[in-house]
C-alpha cells in the first residue's frame, strides 16, 4: 500500500516552495488537478519499486479537508494509467468506515498471484547490493564511494560479512540523495561516505552524504511533561 | 471541496474509546486463553506456543504500508 496526499502530489510538481515551519503557499490550496498530474513522477516511481518486488501495489489517498474531488480523481487516473487500484480514505475523520473502500482494494490486490522477489541474492558482494538498490530503487546512474567507505567495504568482505544485506542511510526528502530534488530524479550518482557493520543485527549500513544516523535529542525529554491528573488520566502526551 | 470537520485532539479521541477485554480480541483471532499471558484486562503477550498451535491455519497476507516521498512538512501536512 502506497499512501499519498493531494498536498504531496502538488509538492512534487515542483511549482511551490514548501518549507517546514512556514504556512503552505496559498496557491497550493486552490483546486488544481493539473498540478496533481504534474507531480505524478514520485508516486509512479514508488509504485514501480513495489512492482519490482513482484507484488501488487494499491494507492491509498489520505483525504484531507480542503481537497477537491477532481484532485482525488486525478490521483486515481494516475494509478489506473499503470493498472493499479486506488481508494480515497477518510479514516482520520470517520474511523474504520472511512477505510472500507481501501480495505476492499487491498483484499483484491492480495488475492492476485504474487511472485515476491528480493532485490539481490545474499551471495552478491556488498558493492553489488548497494549498486542494485541505488540504480533499481533510487534511480541513480551509479555509486561513488569515499576512500574511507571503500576501505570499510573491503574489510567487511575480507572478514566474512559480505553476505549480509545492506541498509542505506539517505535523506527521506527525495528518492535521490539530494533533499532538494523532487519527483523521480535521474542523472545523478549516490555518494557513500562510510560503511558500518551491525553484525549482531545482521546488516551492513551505508551513510550517504552528510546523513546522521541518530536524530538529535531535545534538552528536555517529553517525559518531563507527562503526568497523571487527579482523575487518573494520563496528561501531557501531546 | 471536502469539508473541514472539527476534530478533538487525538488524546481526547483515545480517551473516549471503550476498550474490549484483550481475551475477547484474542478470541476473535482464534487465540484461546491457553495461548495468552495476560497483563491486566487489556494487555497480553502471545505465547510462542501459538506458532505450533495455529500451524494448520491458512497462510495470512502481509501488507506493507509505505508512502510517497514526504514534503518537508511530513507526508500529511497538519494545516488545520
Quick description:
The complex is a heterodimer of chains A (238) and B (80). With 238 residues, chain A is an alpha/beta fold. Helix content of chain A is 33%, strand content 17%.
Q: How does this structure look, described?
A:
The complex is a heterodimer of chains A (238) and B (80). In chain A, strand 8 and strand 9 form a beta hairpin. In chain A, the strands form three sheets. In chain A, strands 4-6-7-5 form a four-stranded mixed sheet. Chain A is 33% helix and 17% strand. Chain A is an alpha/beta fold and 238 residues long. The model of chain A has no long low-confidence stretch (mean pLDDT 93). The longest helix of chain A has 13 residues. The two termini of chain A are 28 Å apart. Helices cover 24% and strands 12% of the residues of chain B. Chain B is built from three helices and three strands. In chain B, a hairpin with a 3-residue loop joins strand 1 and strand 2. At the A-B interface, strand 1, helix 1 and helix 3 of A face helix 1 and strand 3 of B. Strand 1 of chain A pairs parallel with strand 3 of chain B, so a sheet runs across the interface.
Kindly list the characteristics that best describe this protein.
heterodimer; A: 238 residues; alpha/beta; Formyltetrahydrofolate synthetase, domain 3; 2 domains; four-stranded mixed β-sheet; three-stranded parallel β-sheet; B: 80 residues; alpha+beta; two-stranded antiparallel sheet; 24% helix; disordered C terminus
Amino acid at each position: 500500500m502506497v499512501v499519498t496526499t493531494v498536498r504531496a502530489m502538488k509538492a512534487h510538481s515542483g511549482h511551490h516552495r514548501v518549507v517546514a515551519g512556514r504556512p503552505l503557499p496559498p496557491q497550493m490550496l486552490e483546486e488544481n488537478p493539473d498540478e496533481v498530474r504534474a507531480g505524478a513522477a514520485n508516486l509512479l516511481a514508488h509504485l514501480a519499486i513495489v512492482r519490482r518486488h513482484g507484488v501488487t501495489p494499491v494507492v491509498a489517498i489520505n483525504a484531507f479537508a480542503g481537497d477537491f474531488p477532481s484532485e482525488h480523481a486525478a490521483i486515481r487516473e494516475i494509478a489506473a494509467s499503470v493498472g493499479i487500484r486506488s481508494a480515497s480514505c477518510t479514516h482520520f475523520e470517520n474511523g474504520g468506515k472511512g477505510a472500507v473502500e481501501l480495505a476492499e482494494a487491498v483484499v483484491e490486490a492480495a488475492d492476485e498471484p504474487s511472485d515476491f522477489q528480493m532485490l539481490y541474492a545474499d551471495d552478491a558482494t556488498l558493492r553489488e547490493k548497494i549498486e542494485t538498490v541505488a540504480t533499481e530503487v533510487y534511480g541513480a546512474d551509479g555509486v561513488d564511494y569515499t576512500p574511507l567507505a571503500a576501505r570499510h567495504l573491503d574489510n567487511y568482505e575480507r572478514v566474512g560479512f559480505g553476505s549480509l544485506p545492506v541498509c542505506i542511510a539517505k535523506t527521506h526528502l527525495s528518492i535521490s540523495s539530494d533533499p532538494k530534488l523532487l519527483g523521480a530524479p535521474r542523472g545523478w550518482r549516490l555518494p557513500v561516505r562510510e560503511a558500518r557493520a551491525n553484525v549482531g543485527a545482521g546488516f551492513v549500513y551505508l551513510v550517504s552524504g552528510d546523513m546522521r544516523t541518530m536524530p538529535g535529542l531535545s534538552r528536555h525529554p517529553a517525559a518531563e511533561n507527562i503526568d497523571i491528573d487527579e482523575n487518573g488520566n494520563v496528561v501531557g502526551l501531546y | 471541496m471536502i469539508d473541514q470537520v472539527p476534530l478533538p485532539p487525538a488524546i481526547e479521541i483515545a480517551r473516549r474509546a471503550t476498550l474490549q477485554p484483550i481475551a475477547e480480541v484474542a478470541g476473535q483471532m482464534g487465540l484461546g486463553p491457553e495461548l495468552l499471558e495476560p497483563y491486566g484486562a487489556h494487555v497480553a503477550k502471545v505465547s510462542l506456543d501459538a506458532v505450533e498451535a495455529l500451524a494448520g491455519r491458512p497462510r495470512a497476507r502481509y501488507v506493507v504500508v509505505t508512502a510517497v516521498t514526504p514534503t518537508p512538512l511530513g507526508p500529511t501536512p497538519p494545516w488545520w
